[in-house]
Amino acid sequence: MQTLLENVRPWGGPAADIRISDGVIASIAPRTSDSAVAGDPATRFIDGQGLLALPGFVNAHAHLDKSWWGKPWVSYGGEATTLGRIAHEREHRGELGIPSVDSAVALLGALVAQGTTAFRSHVDVDLGVGLDGIQVVRDAVGALGVPVALEIVAFPQDGVLRRPGVLDLLDRAAAEGADHVGGLDPASIDRDPVGQLDALFDIADRRGVGVDIHLHDGGELGAFQYELIIERTLATGLAGRVNVAHGFAIGELAPARQQKLIEGMREAGVSITTVAPINAPRLPLDALRAAGVPVGLGTDGIRDLWGPYGDGDLLRLATRLAQLSGARRDDELTAAVRLATSDAAGFVGRASHDLVVGSPADIVLLDAENVPEALVAAPPRRLVLVGGVEFPVA
Amino acid sequence: MQTLLENVRPWGGPAADIRISDGVIASIAPRTSDSAVAGDPATRFIDGQGLLALPGFVNAHAHLDKSWWGKPWVSYGGEATTLGRIAHEREHRGELGIPSVDSAVALLGALVAQGTTAFRSHVDVDLGVGLDGIQVVRDAVGALGVPVALEIVAFPQDGVLRRPGVLDLLDRAAAEGADHVGGLDPASIDRDPVGQLDALFDIADRRGVGVDIHLHDGGELGAFQYELIIERTLATGLAGRVNVAHGFAIGELAPARQQKLIEGMREAGVSITTVAPINAPRLPLDALRAAGVPVGLGTDGIRDLWGPYGDGDLLRLATRLAQLSGARRDDELTAAVRLATSDAAGFVGRASHDLVVGSPADIVLLDAENVPEALVAAPPRRLVLVGGVEFPVA
């Protein structure tokens, strides 16, 4: 069975027909050529109504196991520190039925309905839930009925070395198919940056998985840990498989020091993911891109025990990232949409994630004149295809 | 003719019936009491379906004359400086038919459909358009068919003293009914902070209007102009009628210096409006509120020659303000909605703008469990009443 998505404007260009076969984009033809298979019973036709077509959005930093989305309102009650929030979450998640497949499906359904078709999700791995969360997220994605892309980061939210047993859990997660081992503020949480990082890179090296480390630590303490990560990436040859998440420190450094870190990331093959925070030092987005360091965009947690914010709309988040970086020109606005879609293929293990032949048929239609308008307006999604399969829009 | 808005939850409280008479809230009764006038032919009934009711949103800093909303996309092309953008706008607005009633109606329609029912709008007054923009905005509001509240700030976007003739225009605007004279960076644009401010306060004092000054200047230069404004407010006795717009400088000061300015604002009766910018120093929101300094929230320009951003949704803007100020607890989230509604009455010349008897019947219904959820989700507006008159929602 083929699908012909007729009369859409890929990336705001001229109207085209997109043929989808086996979940993959098989051809993109100018709309002027009449479809030869009109009426073909083996082809499903979708009228794209001249809408703008974008690739599915890529959520490069999600926490799909944590949310209370779809449940009655949960008032925030934790202490306003990272350690306080970690403790608060571990104390109360059980009461909310977190993690569970139902919870994760509720959140995922809302996210896919907004056009996100690929996720890199950190999933809590700790002495309380063990590896259960990973299976929960896998099962939830499986329950969606569309071939959403998923990479799993086994995430030691409660710490690594400070919680004996967690390293073994991470090792087991990697052995059992997690795509990355995670980490968390090796200095400020575990109090042993070298110890945590050595241990994580050892697992990654032995198991052939990636590393994706939450790094909230600021200033020179954060910068030092960037350096440790860069050194270990070079030493293990894990180029292209190591990511710093948040990495606020780089926004606080003087330009010359910042540039040196960026050079180090480029040389070692270390990427960075941001959640476009509005209360953090400004990420040097232009310099990172100029150096060719991949930058991914993610939602972070959404309505969880860390805080009540978030609707999961990656396009709206791309608007915020563009605003944060001072983008106003059309090419800058378009680049922000690229960052959240085609440029993020590597964050979800794909060679290509775009409106091109051979890419998975992850396609979002929306009513916008052009890509810049799609970015600033973030209009409702009119159609979402995941691997050529339609998912109901919000 | 009365209206009975049945079965709504004012501020998320118990279900109630709101009776509206002559455009004003006449009573709010618990839903348990059966309406005695059911079937009364002189009463119009609206089924509120148990939705959450909020007061209409107050846009305390708009530029209703500037937008190209509703027109084909306009690529941004100005130089990235305030002076560059001023020149760019003056050069190209004519081509876009700005200002015009049609343009302003297109924008206003979208804003009211999202539940904004009261505006304080700066309107460009300069040697090019003279006072035409003010009439354009008045006519546009008049064309909406609902009693939207409007205060006009005669805004010298192109400068005051540096453009001989503009002071006369501002004086005439005040004589002809503008509610406030505006100003713009007395130091960095006009190069004469004392001169500009003396001239503006002279007009305000003579004409009995307010003062609302755009102050982008940062650091000590901005702080100095805060002081000049405070001194002149005290001298003229214009307490409660003077506002600093943006006022980024206060966010850059050390806490003690910041607190001294806030004390000065409180003593003199100077308010501040913010557009919740994500790239500016953080406004000391808690300290301003603790001191009783009124804080208003506005959209700033939307899709204009200054930049392409903005959808005008005040509720979503309140979400951003809450995030900027680190709000997570329910009371903090609710306070952000209050700031954008009931607490902003004074910015649009109202004694009361709330879901209380005697207030104008500006009421917005939306589907949310409670006020905090309304803030973080900013769901679609289900009903918008302006002075008891329904306006079609987006």
Order of helices and strands of chain A: EEEEEEHHEHEHEHEHEHEHEHHEHEE
The portion of residues forming beta strands of chain A comes to 15-25%
DSSP helical segment count of chain A: 11
Largest interface: A-B, 31 and 31 residues
Q: What structural class do you assign from the helix and strand content of chain A?
A: alpha/beta
Secondary structure: helix percent of chain A: 25-40%
Distance between the termini of chain A: 26 Å
Mean pLDDT of chain A: 96
Oligomer: homodimer
Q: Measured on Cα atoms, how large is the radius of gyration of chain A? A: 21 Å
Poorly predicted runs of chain A are none
Shape field of chain A? globular
Task: Please report the total strand number of chain A as a whole number.
Answer: 16
Largest sheet of chain A, described in full?
A: 8 strands, mixed
Please specify the SSE layout and strand pairing.
Two copies of one chain form a homodimer.
Chain A: E1 2-10, E2 16-21, E3 24-30, E4 43-47, E5 52-55, E6 57-62, H1 82-92, H2 101-113, E7 116-124, H3 132-143, E8 149-155, H4 166-175, E9 180-184, H5 193-207, E10 210-215, H6 219-236, E11 242-246, H7 255-268, E12 270-274, H8 285-290, E13 295-297, H9 314-324, H10 330-339, E14 363-366, H11 371-377, E15 381-386, E16 389-391
Parallel strand pairs in A: 1-4, 1-5, 6-7, 7-8, 8-9, 9-10, 10-11, 11-12, 12-13
Antiparallel strand pairs in A: 1-2, 2-3, 5-14, 14-15, 15-16
Helix pairs in contact in A: 2-3, 4-5, 5-6, 6-7, 9-10, 9-11, 10-11
